[in-house]
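User: Sequence in, structure out. Go.
Assistant: Echoing your sequence, followed by the structure tokens.
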Amino acid sequence: MTKARTNIYLDTALKEEAKKFFESYGLNFSSGISFLLRQTLDKKSLKLDEIEPVYPDDPDYKLMKEAKKGDTIGLDEFMKL
């Protein structure tokens, strides 16, 4: 996957609030925006209530966070999650 730099202009307060929100889920701003875009395209809808929530106690969230750090875990540890 190649990445492209994209410049967008946002209200400063909106951007800061969004950054804090994404960080509460372990995502940086860029990853959070990418997540929202992917969900929008996958659902083919702009209805945000159709986006499946991800919670910090969800095993997928924990795996996502570990993968983001670049750490790896063994299969046994994965199965415990």
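User: And one key feature?
Assistant: The chain is about 55% helix and 0% strand.
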